[in-house]
Amino acid sequence: MQSLWRLLSNVREYGMYAGRTAAWAVISPFASTENSADVAPTPALSERGVPSETPRSTPRSSKRRIISAKELRKHTSKFTCWICISGKIYDVTTFLKSHPGGRMIILKYGGRDCTAQFFGRGHSLTAINMLEEYYIGTLELTREISQGELKRKLSNESSVSQHEHTAWRLTGGNIKQASSKVGLWQVSSRGFLPSRDPQRATKGPLLPLEMLVACLPVGISDGSVRECIAAKKEDILKATDAFESMSADELNRAHSLFSYLSFAYVRVKGPFIKPLTKLPRFLSKGWVKVSNMLGRQPMLDYCDCVLNNWERLDKTKKMTMENLRMLNRFTGVVDEEHFFKTHVIIESEAAPVINAIQKAFDCIERRDTSTLLVQFKALEMALFRLTRTCLPIMFASTKSEGALCDYFMFFHQLRPLIKTWVMTYEGEFNDKPKMFMGPSGAMSSILPCMDALLGIQMSSPKLSKMLRAFEAYIPRRHREFLEVLRKRTNARVYVSSLKVHEPHLVYSYNSIIDRVLDFRWSHFQFVKKYVIEQAPKGTRATGTGGTPAFTYLHQHIRDTEEARIYIDNKTPELHPKQQRHFVEIPKIDLKELKEPEGSVREWEKQREEFWEVGRKGFLCAFEPPRWTSKTKPKFCSVLVDLVRLLPSTCVAGGPFRQIVDSKKDDLKEFAGCIDSLSRVEAERACSLLAFIAAGYKADSGQYATIGKYAAINSAPQCVAKPLKTLAAKLDRPPRLSYSDLVLLNWRLDPELGEEKKCSSCLSDTGPEHDQSPNCRNKPRIRILHPVLAIPNEDWFWGMHVAIEGEASKCIRAISRGLRLMQQDNVVEVAGCLDELAHGLRALIQCHPDPYPHSSRAELVLWRRLKTFVAPKASLRDLSCLIYQGHSAILPSLFEYLGVKKGTHKLQAWREEAVKFMPTEHRKFLGVIKSSITARAYLKGKIAQMKIRAKIHDIAVLEVSFNKCIEQLLRFCSRRSQLVCRCVPQEAQWFREVEMKQEAEYLTKSHCALLIGMKLMPKDIGMNSFPKSVAANNHENLPPRFVKNRRKRNSDNSLTFKTNEPSSFHLRSASMEQGSEFIPSSGILPTRMSSDLTDRGLIGAEEEIDV
Known about the structure:
47% helix
């Protein structure tokens, strides 16, 4: 052993797994075959030599071989570059050009061991998994391992599962539950998780609270959560009175329920929802009471969100991401679920850390140095697992949904609901405001225990006080456990006293410091991405607990660095002599439409009334009924309850399918009562069934892998059969469609009086009524049935409801124009086209410009919605869906104006979308298709011109038609911008292929027939033009027709001189000051609008030669 200590004294300190203390493998428990991969070799086998002859890259052999260090050093150039990572040799010659950091950084370590550099850079798991592609052999070992043993390892290497690697593998925690005699928060082999799995209340006074919490996502989204909670006031007070008879487990569950209900009651937002500064008495009384009984704070804390907020889907399996589910939630997105579950996994995997800490303290008291060294190694390995395996789970992503915890969704959707607050608790604390900190990772006891063992002290009194304040929010047993540890002799004091005689303890202690620093730096990267970078510029980023994130974390990192122990005031240098063999590093494996089956004519008249086109645009003619617990039909209550539970129970492999299956009897009872439904009730019931079917079939990504509920592609018969029956009667598709998401999924805010309604409120005002800026800035539309229950979803569908409602102006213009074209009234048809252009401008204004939030919001929104709305659609199909959905707006406009049809994907989607529209919308399109188009009417009038005086009317008609084409092009441009924000992966294809063709056909439909025929004789005056058309001032004319080119003639007329072969001569009987001229479009050369040219949809300038 003495020779071993002398060997270790020459070893440079780098830390273990990143190639920092390889020589420790001799005495480490990792030296066994199973654990040999836990130790990485040290960097720099020797200086890179320059061979006299540069060898070429060796082709990879399927047979793994042993490579000597001498052979490794020969491959150092761009023609052949080998590197060594964790004892394995990789030929990265072909990867040099693809390396994101450039080839020079790899060539710098060519022919050498770069384990420390590779892991020190914090490479992702994806990069680690890529190593296998370039693996060619294993570095020759020293005599520590015999050649026979090495050959046996190599022969068995292929059969060794990656997930059998100890350091990189999740242990799954301890699933054994303690008896009811053991305290719930007793620190045990489960770490700081409760000794028994958290359970929902299935009976007793807490059951009504459980039902309320299950519906929180929908209540927060539609703004009804305060009303729902207040309606259960008596049940909440009854639960408060029953606290004395509850067990400790039930009291902790009650604390969680009161926390979520109180936060939802206060934090709900809406245009007419007033912010609260006082928590009502019926909530504050029970919350403060249960907090005092448990020794906790009346606040939503880390225990409520993480430690006591999970359940195992399969009670016989271990704690993994796939087998865990959160009990309470505020939203219906996977981001909230993934964020909190990652923390549960960290707490579960920290159990070996707590166990090693306790044993290390015992060894220090016994002064058992050899056993202490073993515990240090066990602690180091457990910390490595937390850092390299658990923390990266937070950044996990899937191909379909992207990042499972998106930083935008966390900061802008979840964080505002759980952050620190200052609140007055009515009837408590002398009715004075109290500040309580929101749930934070600083409320976890893992790192405080590490600080207690390693003797890490916080140098800043302010931050030290803040950390101690966080401890008031952790369970009482955990606080007592921490206090006991802090009173014992810590490892820093003990190791410092032995640093001269036992230097190996110093090296091992400093290795643990490295692991803690590694954890803190990894956590800092997480906080930087999710909090600091998302905070508005110029503001101070704070965590959910209210701490200054940047200052707090950096201060803690510096204090950890200061805890190192040095020998002779300098860091001892290490020149390792050993090379170890390692099994390979594992990866973490995270894991149609049909036409309606016919139409039933018995409800035709009622359906026509409900879907009357024009009363509210393409929306249903009557405001859809909002079924509540009081207004819903008795046999339809099961549908309402299931849809309200959908956001909270359908995310991350939740129990929604189980809940639906448990309601089979109620659903069958509903199916037997379908014939008794009224027209409005049938529409609402069919829409609810479509939501239930979509939620049942929704793929839950990496979590839909458990039991019989995995990979289900169809709804159960108890849902599918009544859905098909109702869909056939209503002549609609039996699936979740645009009608369910938009046309039937809205309500006007009840706080809005009739006298305040305007066009943005879906009123019946005429085209002359404009939106006021105040009304546009305050949303009046609310969504009835959200899927994700987040503000962005409400905004997105609300915008489309407003667009469909505003289409009433366009519908009236089209209907009137079709009638007038049959009457052959040119002047009035031109007026209808002007009205249509005005309606198109209203549709354009429904799109925000600029958008009120980052484009990341739409990107993540559609990553989450795609699972429900279009689970099997490609991204290009999704782009078409977002562009026009199954709306009748664009098809009716294209048909009425006679826009030329192309063969591009958008046109094919428009034709296919007709099948999924309501029957009345299809009829309206059929009427337009059977009538003459505006463009054909214009061309026909020009071809039949006989009376010269009618030329002016036709010229006005051409001007009005061209205005409609230009406004339609602007509307399509806004839709294109929305698509690029929602599906940026296909933005280039959509702009350069689809929108380019769309704009091309629109511009080709632009008419310049009169100008082309040079039909503007000099003796025709302005008196022939209707006043309704002469609406634009001469300032709208192109500069070359206005500036220094106007000449007043002796007959009081104006001549616009141009460089063209002829000039225009417009005469008015009385040219008074302020006279208005005909718009430039269609008569004079025109420049397309700048916002279109900026987006590259059309040329910078399109002029018509005279």
